């Protein structure tokens, strides 16, 4: 975090988003998940912080509204593992099968109400994921403009971070993990260029991070275990479970995004 | 004709859980055909348009706005629902209010309840250790319900606890009782002056339930986790528990329930028990009487442990006569048994009883002396390989159903043995699930193996012991008074068939 002043963008039950001139970050308590936007602090609660409050960061001290000053002198920087994955095709097949089995058994993955609106959302997201998988498997991810069904995913769906954005975050983190350049960079840039007018500030910030390969820790753990060249179903099951249970549906959607890309890769290489 | 109302809240942010909650709340109002609360992104506006939820007002929303879109059977319903949504949004009902004392952190919880001295941790395993460490640093005893805590983490936590005169129960501690109050998966039992130290799970549940049935009562049931007695962990929590129970004047007697301790650990634990100043009973599966110091009374089964404490006996299950009658109903081809267990300790107890009856049993969770392969098989469905990605069978008994149906259709099986575990946290009607499976099997075949079960529960449990018993009896299940008796009946039937 750089020294400066800004305002509180939004306040939620246990987190607040802080806005500077060009970025957002998320301040939370000690149980906040590690992520590129996240500041995990010693604050017990954020009841004294309101939208529009001023925040100030200087000399390793962060003050937000009327809340106690946070001393950041000894804070640690979390970074996801950046080594590109080298998946083994046979193991990848088993891992994909296993994860799909886990999803089919998870009640968390079919929680949304079956209304006309959710059906419409699911239809658009499914079409978008199909287009994405097809482009990955045919190595045409960076050909021409972004596929219209993928564009439709941006800002599509329920939640503070719309479900389509969560899928794209998962997809972009997976793509960056696979280091399938230069197609990945082009694709990610296309998403980020279109996103500001298609989705809200908070979700856009997450998309921006994902476009450079940075997502929340459960997503990275999942991608790492999914692409691991060795089989460890216990670890994969734990990582899958943790990601599925992240957020309301964000984790599950991010998992779907990552799976879409990895399945496309498998189809290409098998 | 339907009425559509839209309202835009500019620059208004609500987290996903709150959005879903409010959407569901509004959609449930009388007269509302559909209701959504979504961000005003172009994609979402199109969806609302396609769903017939968008009017001119809503079309002007931008991606950072919250759109409330309703379709109702008439204007009055729509206005009422919108008013409700506005009230919820403006009144802060969706955020923590003054009446909401929910804490988000351990420190926050302690601020609200400064007298608390126990933290129960149920988080994914990789977070559990750090939460437990924090709890200990805050001076709290800890019950770790979570599993997937590594052995080094467990040792460090328990050492830290012992140095600070605190107790760590678990990891993987599913059951505990403190001052007779049930914690996590536990039963409504009678309070008393007996204390138990167990790995924690169905062994503690069965013992506490039998104690209640025999007129006794439990003061504390301390769950030390399945690895505490291993040489790797060296019984740190068990030793702390013995110290605590020894000093507790309201505890008259201590019962140890476990699998065999590690060789090095056994001596330390037994020496401490001998010198604790109170009578001790040990039900250590896989150990014999002569492995224990003479000062410690030996119980081969959980039933025997409860009977030794109370000096009373459970009603006879009339094993011999029932086994003969059941065997007479089976043809000669039916020789083998299948056990389908939800409780690990109950599974172990059954295996040992069958071994003592001369029946070689194989299991995915083998007890000491189990065979590597055998036509007689006892399966612990609570073991990891059956629960990865699936709910535990105690919470969702239907996960046992496919295996039960398969067993009931197997013409070589003479007996199928089950446990039915009641209590807080367990499914609200496990007997109904089992009965349904049996009825389904009976539709395909008039000849089924004998089905034997015991019910680990009390009348005061949410499910009601008698009600569950009646359901199973009506489905043709042979009910025994405890798991040990069920295993003995099963063994007797098999021995008559072979």
Walk me through what this model shows.
- The complex is a heterodimer of chains A (270) and B (498).
- Chain A is an alpha+beta fold and 270 residues long.
- Chain A is built from 9 helices and 7 strands, in the order βββββββααααααααα.
- Chain A is globular.
- The mean pLDDT of chain A is 88.
- Chain B has 498 residues and is α/β, with parallel strands linked by helices.
- Chain B is 39% helix and 20% strand.
- Chain B is built from 18 helices and 19 strands.
- In chain B, strands 15-16-14-17-18-19 form a 6-stranded parallel β-sheet, sandwiched between helices. In chain B, strands 10-9-11-12-13 form a 5-stranded parallel β-sheet, with helices on both faces.
- In chain B, helix 8 (202-213) runs parallel beside helix 11 and helix 15 (401-408) runs parallel beside helix 16.
- The longest helix of chain B is centred in the first third of the chain and has 16 residues, at 75-90.
- Mean pLDDT of chain B is 90; it is low at 93-100.
Contiguous helical run count of chain B = 18
Spatial strand order of the main sheet of chain B: 15-16-14-17-18-19
| Quaternary organization | heterodimer
Order of helices and strands of chain A: EEEEEEEHHHHHHHHH
Kindly report the average pLDDT value of chain A.
88
> Strand order of the main beta sheet of chain A, please?
4-3-2-1-5-6-7
Poorly predicted residue ranges of chain B: 93-100
Principal-axes geometry of chain B comes out as globular
| Shape type of chain A | globular
How far apart lie the N and C ends of chain B? 75 Å
User: Structural class per helix/strand content of chain A?
Assistant: alpha+beta
SS-derived structural category of chain B: alpha/beta
Main sheet of chain B?
A: 6 strands, parallel
């Amino acid at each position: 975090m750089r020294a400066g002043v800004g305002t509180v963008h939004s306040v939620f039950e246990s987190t607040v988003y802080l806005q500077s001139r060009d970025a957002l970050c998320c301040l939370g308590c000690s149980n906040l998940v590690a992520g590129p936007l996240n500041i995990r602090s010693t604050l017990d609660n954020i009841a004294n912080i309101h939208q529009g409050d001023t925040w100030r960061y200087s000399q390793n001290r962060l003050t937000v509204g009327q809340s106690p000053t946070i001393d950041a002198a000894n804070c640690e920087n979390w970074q996801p593992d950046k080594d590109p994955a080298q998946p083994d095709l046979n193991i990848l097949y088993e891992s994909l099968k296993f994860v799909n089995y886990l999803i089919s058994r998870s009640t968390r993955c079919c929680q949304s109400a079956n209304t006309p609106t959710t059906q419409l959302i699911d239809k658009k997201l499914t079409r978008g994921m199909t287009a994405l998988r097809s482009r990955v498997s045919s190595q045409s991810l960076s050909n021409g403009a972004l596929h219209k069904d993928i564009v439709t995913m941006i800002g599509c769906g329920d939640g503070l971070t719309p479900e389509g954005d969560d899928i794209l975050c998962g997809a972009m983190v997976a793509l960056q993990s696979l280091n399938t350049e230069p197609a990945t960079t082009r694709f990610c840039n296309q998403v980020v260029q279109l996103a500001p007018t298609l989705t809200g500030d908070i979700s856009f910030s997450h998309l921006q991070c994902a476009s450079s390969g940075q997502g929340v820790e459960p997503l990275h753990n999942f991608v790492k275990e999914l692409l691991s060249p060795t089989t460890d179903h216990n670890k994969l099951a734990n990582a899958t479970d943790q990601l599925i249970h992240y957020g309301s549906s964000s984790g599950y959607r991010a998992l779907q995004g990552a799976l879409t890309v990895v399945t496309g890769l498998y189809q290409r290489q098998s | 004709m339907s009425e559509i109302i839209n309202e835009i809240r500019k620059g208004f942010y609500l987290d996903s859980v709150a959005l879903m909650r409010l959407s569901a709340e509004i959609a449930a109002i009388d007269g509302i055909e559909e209701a959504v609360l979504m961000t005003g992104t172009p994609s979402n506006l199109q969806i609302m348009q396609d769903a017939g939820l968008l009017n001119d007002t809503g079309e002007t929303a931008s991606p950072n706005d919250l759109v409330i879109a309703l379709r109702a059977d008439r204007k009055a319903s729509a206005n009422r629902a919108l008013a409700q949504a506005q009230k919820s949004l403006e009144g802060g009902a969706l955020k923590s209010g003054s009446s909401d004392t929910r804490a988000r952190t351990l420190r926050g919880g302690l601020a609200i309840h400064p007298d608390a001295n126990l933290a129960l941790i149920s988080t994914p395993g990789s977070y559990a250790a750090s939460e437990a460490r924090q709890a200990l640093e805050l001076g709290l005893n800890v019950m770790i319900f979570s599993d997937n805590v590594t052995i080094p983490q467990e040792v460090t936590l328990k050492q830290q606890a012992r140095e600070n005169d605190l107790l760590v129960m678990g990891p993987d501690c599913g059951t505990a009782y403190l001052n007779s109050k049930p914690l996590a998966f536990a039963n409504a039992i009678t309070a008393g002056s007996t204390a138990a130290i167990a790995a924690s799970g169905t062994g503690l549940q069965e013992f506490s339930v039998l104690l209640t049935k025999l007129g006794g009562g439990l003061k504390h049931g301390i769950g030390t986790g399945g690895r505490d007695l291993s040489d790797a962990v060296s019984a740190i929590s068990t030793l702390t528990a013995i110290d605590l129970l020894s000093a507790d004047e309201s505890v008259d007697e201590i019962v140890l329930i476990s699998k065999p301790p590690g060789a090095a650990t056994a001596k330390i634990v037994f020496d401490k028990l001998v010198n604790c100043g109170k009578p001790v009973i040990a039900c250590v599966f896989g150990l014999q009487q002569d492995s224990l110091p003479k000062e410690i009374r030996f119980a081969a089964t959980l039933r025997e442990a409860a009977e030794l404490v109370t000096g009373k006996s459970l009603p006879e299950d009339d094993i011999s006569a029932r086994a003969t009658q059941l065997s007479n109903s089976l043809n000669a081809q039916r020789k083998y048994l299948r056990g389908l267990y939800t409780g690990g300790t109950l599974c172990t107890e059954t295996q040992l009883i069958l071994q003592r009856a001369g029946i070689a049993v194989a299991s995915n969770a083998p007890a000491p002396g189990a065979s590597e392969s055998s036509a007689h098989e006892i399966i612990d469905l609570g073991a990891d390989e059956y629960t990865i990605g699936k709910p535990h069978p105690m919470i969702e008994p239907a996960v046992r159903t496919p295996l039960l149906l398969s067993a009931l259709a197997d013409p070589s099986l003479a007996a199928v043995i089950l446990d039915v575990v009641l209590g807080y946290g367990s499914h609200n009607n496990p007997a109904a699930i089992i009965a349904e499976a049996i009825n389904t099997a009976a539709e395909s075949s008039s000849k089924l193996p004998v089905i034997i079960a015991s019910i680990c529960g009390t009348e005061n449990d949410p499910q009601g012991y008698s009600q569950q018993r009646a359901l199973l009896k009506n489905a043709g299940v042979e009910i025994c008074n405890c798991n040990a008796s069920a295993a003995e009946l099963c063994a007797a039937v098999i021995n008559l068939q072979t």
